[in-house]
Design a protein that fits this description.
The protein is mostly helical. The protein starts with 5 loop residues before the first helix and ends in a 9-residue tail after the last helix.
Length: 223
Amino acid sequence: MNRIPAGILAYLVVLLNFGFAHAWMSAINRANLQDLFFWIFIAVAIGLILAARRLRPALDAALGGLAGLLLWAAIGEAGQAGELFESPAIWGVVLVLTIFLTLRPGSRCDFHIWVQKALGIYQAPGEARHWYAPGAAMAFFWTVWLGHMAELTAYYNPAFGVHSWLTWVILIASLVSTPFIFIFLWKTSDWAKAWGRAIPSVLITWMAIEILMKWEVIPKPWG
């Protein structure tokens, strides 16, 4: 029997972490400990990023992804950065970050590389010593933040609604993309790339899960 590719395994690990993160954030909120864990999560995330500095590429990228999850739990959930979707100015910040992350030299994101090649500005990264954790953490936070605010806009903006056309567009795009994501991940055998690809892949499929839970089509396993 062939071994399960690294891309699929990394996807499953990140997906489980998403579910666990929602569960323990719900517990923290019920205990009213958001202020305490805000600083704990940030401190641990910084520690993980620094600890990854001299580790093997796969572990380096994995710790960066975990740090990104903790940063989102702190700033996005406990700090409620996700709720900023109501302010038009925040979308300008998102736009600036998107432009920078998409066009920055040395990006290893497949979508960013595709855009840079289309614009004729792509340069293959050299063989410099790796330190993937900071970029992985930033990518995790940014992608979750963007997806979270997009869903909240679809749900709660007066122009849309929980069953609006925008919510349906997000759901259909997520469901249609998922089979292609699995094919892509099935072909990923390098663990460093697997962790980097699993993060946005899980976000895309998780958006459909979130919407179906919002519609009460599937049960929400946490409070």
